[in-house]
Amino acid sequence: MSLLISVSAHFGAQYSVCSDIREAINNIEKKLSPSQFEEFHRTPIGHFVGLKNLQFSGQIIHQMLLLLVEDQPDDEFWILRNGEIVKFTFNDWCRITGLPNTKRYPPLKDKELGQSSLCHTFLGGEVAKCTFKHVREKYVAAENTMDSKKLVDFSMLYFIESVLLAKDRSTCIESTHLHLVEEPKKFKSYPWAWESYLLTIRHMKGAMDGQPEKFEKKSKETPNYKSFKYTFYGFPLPIQVWAYECFPELVEKNLAVQEGTSSCEILNWASKKFPKAVTLKDIFFRELQQKKDSDADTVRAIRDLKKRMDGLEVKIDEIKKLLVEVVMNLNSSGRRRRSVRIQRQKRARTKAAEEDDEDLEEDDEIEEAAEEYEEETGADEDEDETRENKEESMESEDDTEETEENEEENAIGENEDTEQIEDEHTAVEKSHNDSDEDRAEKEGTAEHEPQDNMTTTLNSQEALPIPSDTHMFEVDSHMVEVDDNEGDDLDEEKLLMELTLNKVKFLK
């Protein structure tokens, strides 16, 4: 959290205060008799008569105001001490002043100001004249022979309006206060401390609103202007006592003395002399000043560094220019080399294209020669193939003729074989028929001549003609013994089949 007013914006000030507790106590002591004074002392505000020689210091209050921090509650007083926030609250106010710690207001009746007996007795019943100045003048002029109780009540009103709720003397007092002093119970329960606290804190904070700007403007208008003047309302002494507690250096430098052990802290302090603004600034802002010096050193270091950086920037700019020139030269030389390389590549491509064209021409010539050769060779091959085809056709014709001749010969042979087989078949049938006839004729004598018959049959078979164009072959002949009892069962067809099979084998 930052300060409300920066250290660089500090300004000088001369403060005065509407409250004068020493004067008020002296006037009360003079006005009251010992018994009346003792009665006053027993009231909630009577303990203030024991206040020692505590002088108000406007410079201490001014330094405390310069330590105010931003963003704090309206009913509290926050300052920055040694880098930490310290808070002054209503509890601290009651602890230092000894006043009752209450914020509750008692119920009050609505009464006209002119109906107050105190107003008729001491103030002449004139409502318009009930200002702080009028109350003070009437109290000082009051006679000691008046009613004792009313004089004590008037003393309480005078002390409250002159010390706790002190304002500008031309300001009117509240009519409620006139009635409260006449009712002891309500007077004791009334939150005098709370009203005094709020009035003092808010007015002190208001003193800082826009003051740096006003001071700067006034300084420009008036060359010899060194500080502005300001008067505090309320009761600033409790803030001064709290400053003694927050900054022990004030006691160490004998600017304040702590004496006594009263529960009311304000009664335990006394001040011997008025401190100077330079001394107080060294105490209140030592750490901030050190930080400021450190910040100043840092600023100087930053400035030196900035100067060096500026020098480096100049050198960097020069280096950049040189680099630009080098890059431009490199680019130009690179472009030249690139153009040369491109020209070389073009020439190489042109040369390669020419060589390719020559190769293509040679290939075309070779292909043409090959085609011509193939055409010539193909013609010769066609002639050879034609000749071969003719020869093959002639050979095939010869083969065909030979095949036809062979087929004719085979057909002739088959016809001859068929005729021979038919002749043989006819001869066999004839021989069988003859045998049957002989057996029939010689039925009685067949048993005595079987061998002759068989011999005749075989001889007839041997007499079969054999074709001259065939190879010699043996026909498996079976010697068939014909028994007279079995001759009738002989199968002629079986013999024909055997002869036919033998013929087929022969042809194959």
Automatic annotation (TrEMBL):
Annotated ranges, domain DUF1985: 71-202
Record's compositionally biased regions (Acidic residues): 354-386, 394-422
Regions of compositional bias (Basic residues) in chain numbering: 339-350
Region of interest called Disordered, as start-end residue ranges on this chain: 339-474
Signal peptide: none
Biased composition (Basic and acidic residues): 423-451
UniProt xrefs under InterPro entries: DUF1985 (IPR015410)
Biased composition (Polar residues): 452-462
Name this protein carries in UniProt: DUF1985 domain-containing protein
Species of the source: Cuscuta campestris
Lineage of producing organism: Eukaryota, Viridiplantae, Streptophyta, Embryophyta, Tracheophyta
